[in-house]
Amino acid sequence: MPIYNDNRAITVEQAKTNSKIINAELPKTNPAGIIDFFEIDLEDILFDNLLLATKIFNTPASSADSERVFRFHNCLNFTTKTILFQGKAYHAAPIIIQDIEYTTKGSMPRPKLSITANARASQAMALLKAKILELGDLTKGKLIRRRTFTKFIDKENSKELLSQILNHEENPKAILRLDIFYFFRKTAETETYLEFELASTLDIDNTGLPNRIVLQDKCVWQYRGEGCCYDTNLKKNTHGFTSSGPPSAAIHPDAKPVADANNMRFEKIPEATESYLPDKIKLSNKGLWTKNSKYLVGQYIFIVKDDIRYYFVCKAEHTNVAPPNSSYWGADQCDKSIRGCKLRFNQKKGLPFGGFAAVRKAASA
To answer: Is pLDDT at 74 greater than 60 in this prediction?
Structure first.
């Protein structure tokens, strides 16, 4: 079954063709039924909590996809069974989204999403509720709604289902409307019911300018990302430096993993009282993590998200265990302190510390 990714860019000609197909269907006296496909994507939450294993989880063949992305459709008058669209399975569930329309009043919509479990979607709902329990909430989770016509669903659907569609014509690119929202807060939950308030990607309520917080002892930069630049694969857009190049303090020949979030070093050195690795084990770069590979103690790898490399050091010999499994991998993390900065950068060239070390709290009058 072909897998379609509508996040990929399409050509102008393809966009024009898809637009013509959609526009040709709309004015018909007997058009195909409209169907909404909903996708709840928890990748950002899972990654931020070091629960997401690796970027290969984006591969639909991975079993972990069912734990990261939850898909539903609400066209129950059409079918109560699973529907295949763009090579992905959407479970039937009474899912309702309200107040989604944009207005000219200037305020962004705050839609309400409600899901009621039924027998068909019980397994998907159970997994979703388990993730909510594990994460505490779905804040920062993404909701994508794809609206299209029933005639454009995949040809791999059952013959019984396709027989209900007049002039079926598989077309995964024919999207009538694509909406993206983020979960703002959970407003109601029962054993069989979930309700959330959503926020638009353009919603900037409660955001002030400038919005950088002045902290004395904590760096605000993204480790190995913008402002920090502790990496060998520096890019202007990702790391935020100008055309003159990255700061000299950030240039490193290897930018290897140094320590965990508690500043425990990976390699044993004279001034370090503790370390992850035995005295005689040295770090060895194995590049991008690959599936089915064997890793030895001291070897380190990286995975990539949003052009930023996240490094992990092997703590125990194993085969095919994806990071960040803490039994086998130690995550290279900065504790965002000056000490953490000194562990990684040449102090003679200056530290790219993102805090304001000279700041002192003024006494109130």
So the answer is: yes
